[in-house]
Enoyl-CoA hydratase domain-containing protein 3, mitochondrial
Amino acid sequence: MLETLRENILTDVDSEDLRVIIISGPVFSSGHDLKELTSARGREYHMKVFQTCSEVMALIQDIPVPVIAMVNGIATAAGCQLVASCDIAVATEKSTFATPGVNVGLFCSTPAVAIGRAVPRKVVPEDRLEEETLGIAQRVCQSSRPVVALGKATFQRQMAQGRDAAYATASKVMVDNLALRDGQEGIQAFIEKRKPVWSHKPENVHD
Amino acid sequence: MLETLRENILTDVDSEDLRVIIISGPVFSSGHDLKELTSARGREYHMKVFQTCSEVMALIQDIPVPVIAMVNGIATAAGCQLVASCDIAVATEKSTFATPGVNVGLFCSTPAVAIGRAVPRKVVPEDRLEEETLGIAQRVCQSSRPVVALGKATFQRQMAQGRDAAYATASKVMVDNLALRDGQEGIQAFIEKRKPVWSHKPENVHD
Amino acid sequence: MLETLRENILTDVDSEDLRVIIISGPVFSSGHDLKELTSARGREYHMKVFQTCSEVMALIQDIPVPVIAMVNGIATAAGCQLVASCDIAVATEKSTFATPGVNVGLFCSTPAVAIGRAVPRKVVPEDRLEEETLGIAQRVCQSSRPVVALGKATFQRQMAQGRDAAYATASKVMVDNLALRDGQEGIQAFIEKRKPVWSHKPENVHD
């Protein structure tokens, strides 16, 4: 899909007749194919996946024509990153945006490079204060501790870097995240349609 | 006008009695005088215009008293940049903000230095998704391709720099933009009150 | 209080069972104890206060578990900085946020490191344009000129730096601010429950 997107973006990019690109449709709702991310495929393969993804996102900002994201539904993970990487985004009110990777043990560190640069970082809602706060806290507690720790540290680190350095940092972190025991457990659980059982230990799968 | 603004800002700036500056009135609605920007005036003159403009905008942030923009109407191009350069902005609901330089073939690259640092970058509106998206796409297509390409590339580049380096980058780009065949065509068309005929070629007027 | 907060944050921080921290309660409404900031305590003591504060704020972002601010009331000065330093903030509508240090002659330069990185910088309200603008201008004029000048210059400077360098810059500035005649006058007036009489001169208390 990333290669198809890249090919599509590069088609006629230097033609004078290409003036603007509109991206729409189900591409926003798809994240990475988790079956490609099991440890069976190996670290080098994982590195290639996230490098390709980062390259395509950077490409969108580097080509000479404006790219508009037209969103009407769910935009998640790399799909949400794709919206944030476009020059302009137009979305219906029923559209929702999420980076749910942490639920399968893979913190959305590369999406955060684009999203952290596109939207204000703090959200301050209404009156159900304790309910909201505890709800967020519970969602954190249902996640793997080392995955959250890696994601939090990486967010602070990459936000202080330029875009290209930030993508290099975050791409490597995605691979490190996959090598974590909990990174692989989350993906296995997703494939086997069961709830993940986190070790909460910062250990690699091959330690 | 820029020189008058500079003089006004510097008047009594070191006096203990000057404590705050309020800028208001038609100054926000005026961009550059396009007649000053034809190729007849030459590259050096253009460089001076944009350097002076960048210096005045930086000056507003560098003087020791707070500067408040009081806006009640249209703020465009360098006027919009002026609002974004002030320490505080107060505007009525009927106020509008725009950087329409691309319509006359001169992308607002220097205004984007201040605006890109003052407001969030993505806007996500309502339900008329396709209409909105196609409307934006059409406005892009009515612009000169090399002008848009130069503007897009410059935005990404200057946002990764500190303010002073960003203004140096963007000021030079404004001059390069003016040297483009389409940069001069846009300005000539504006002066002659006709629609511009873009070449869409990244060629300089003297090539 | 800062030391207590630091101890609380560090308690069990490396335990696998700690997964999220929620900060709530009156901690947000307390700024620094102004009695600690009189010139009688000396420059070294002041430096220690602001360094400790900056360290605790950075610590919140550097520990491996997410920290949620649960706010239901007034968050001011270092309390407002604390909210901005948390990974996530949830606040009721009755919550208010302010950095009122300038009223006692001590510009909130260290809070601005966190707040300037967490919220968009410009606020554009409604129709009472002149009233609003003049209200802001009057509040500026009721403040000490050298204190405002120091605060404005520091904001521009620290925003161009990385977080840790920004805190080093701002911490030193807080101490310089305290050494100003008007910095001490503001604090003395607060302690003596009278209105401050600003000198508006950029002189140190021991000059």
